[in-house]
Amino acid sequence: MPNYQAPLRDLRFVMDEMLDYPAHYAGLPGGEEASPYVVAAILEEGARFAREVLLPLNQSGDKEGCLLEGGEVKAPKGFKAAYAQYVEGGWPSLAANPAHGGQGLPPSLAMVLNEMVCATNLAWGMYPGLSHGAADALRHHGTEAQQATYLTKLVEGTWTGTMCLTEPHCGTDLGLIKTRALPSDDGAYAITGTKIFISAGEHDLAENIVHLVLAKLPDAPEGSRGISLFVVPKYLPDDAGEPGERNGVVCGSLEHKMGIHGNATCVMNFDGAKGFLVGKPNKGLACMFTMMNAARIGVGIQGLGLTEASFQNALAYARDRLQMRALDGAKAPEKPADPIIVHPDVRRMLLTQKAFAEGGRMLVLYAAQMIDIVEHGGNAAEKERAETLLGLLTPIVKAFLTEVGFEATNEGVQVFGGHGFIQEWGMEQLVRDARITRLYEGTTGIQALDLLGRKVLMSQGESLKVFTREIHKFCEAEEGNSELAEFVRPLAKLNREWGEMTMAIGMKAMSDREEVGAASVDYLMYAGYVTLAYLFARAAKQARVALSESTQEAAFYRAKLDTARFYYQRLMPRTRAHKAAIEAGAEPLMAISAEDFGLGFEI
């Protein structure tokens, strides 16, 4: 079975030393509850729960999968008991509003716990995962009656939530949905249609499941302008607010998937199910975006958690596995061969995983601060800036961290060699589980269009400037620091190039809109590498400060500098390839004829 230890020391470095979370929490209304003592206790207990409760169920849940009988789904053995412990421990309510039964702690604290959950049992973590987003959607857009009925149950975890968007004939293009909502005399709606790929759509972990469903009213406009949002519970709440009559929604089948076998990914059939309108008619997509944005950050954290899990196990194996001698002479002459960690290519793979894990953690926690400010900050100007930054960073968190997360889990298998390809070690499961993260909640291509098209170009680059100005100020402040020159100088050059390249894409797109689509994925990856470069430069600065002030934990801080150097010298140069691909433009993609594709029809 794979092993896992929550990276508490690295979390403390990023939270306490680099991003100054203690001051950040103290500046939030009500943030005094998140004292360093409370935060440390939560992190340690979360680490224990992930390691002792969730990790032992990961491989067994993958092998057993879910069972569908008569429309009812049974999760793998142990999942229900683990969920009961999760609820009993108060984890679902950690960052929720006290008015709805929550503990009122900052959202960022729950996100840290989420990394541990994703690293130890991604499939299990998906059962409670969407409940937070469902609660947020109802908190922002639901009526008082809907909030009274559903929010407390979702917050305490006795009910879970889902997000029902995709249909057999449409994925991202939700304007094509066919699910219909017919008004009833009692003010409710009869929801009829089929939704697919619904994570945790049916299960036996909680006593009720609250589906948030996109559907169209009879007089709805065409396309995405005609989408409405409805809350459709599995069991209709009775007068006491407890599960009552069974609603007309059932699981028709379970998807047979490449990974995340322990989670019930369902085809959900709505047959005149009673639903209740959330928000205004035909404004459902805007309401659902509240949930979708939270889910996108959550999927980025999944990529991070799997990266960390793969790295930890690959590192342990590389220290133990004996294979060949080092090229410059034996490193362990008392043994029949050297541990494979002495070989340069194994180190390349391990350091790639390490850099993406540590860089991804910095990115998530940086974005998490923005979420805290948006949700709880008191200053209007700070909130506006945080919201702009969060909008820019969300597609990067989601897509970049899942792309490099999949790379990292593949490198983990490679470190193990043939042993990584068999089930025993659990490394191949990490790859299979990681693959979905690049797809759901919007593929990498969709996130890239959101970043370049909506967030950057539609704002005339203003959202990007908020971030690049921050990077510029950091580089300007450290320009005379010779100890940081190896980081600051290339970062400043990349930061300028980012702005110039964005302007060039915008100019080309004025005459050919295909240029945006052609450039978008490379642009997102470029943006991800530059963003991590900025955060590694900040980490290097903090490590230098710590080394100058004390000799304690010198090895930890030297490792921070070494990882930053590896990132700058071996990973950041990937930006050159992405820049070259962007500059090649749309022509190499769009000029290929149908005949060249061998399709026999025009495209």
UniProtKB/TrEMBL annotation:
Give the reaction(s) catalysed.
3-(methylsulfanyl)propanoyl-CoA + oxidized [electron-transfer flavoprotein] + H(+) = 3-(methylsulfanyl)acryloyl-CoA + reduced [electron-transfer flavoprotein]
Task: Tell me the domain of life.
Answer: Bacteria
Describe the location of the Acyl-CoA oxidase/dehydrogenase middle domain by residue ranges. Answer: 163-271
Is tRNA processing found in the keyword set?
Answer: no
Can you give the residue ranges of the Acyl-CoA dehydrogenase/oxidase N-terminal domain? Answer: 45-157
Q: Which GO terms describe its molecular function?
A: flavin adenine dinucleotide binding; oxidoreductase activity, acting on the CH-CH group of donors
User: What are the Acetyl-CoA dehydrogenase-like C-terminal domain coordinates in residue numbering?
Assistant: 467-592
Assigned EC number: 1.3.99.41
Question: Pfam family of this protein, just one?
Answer: Acyl-CoA_dh_N
- Could you tell me the keywords of this UniProt record? FAD, Flavoprotein, Oxidoreductase
| Cofactors that this protein relies on | FAD
Would you identify the family this protein belongs to, as annotated?
Belongs to the acyl-CoA dehydrogenase family.
Q: What is this protein called?
A: 3-methylmercaptopropionyl-CoA dehydrogenase
Its taxonomic placement starts with: Bacteria, Pseudomonadati, Pseudomonadota, Gammaproteobacteria, Oceanospirillales
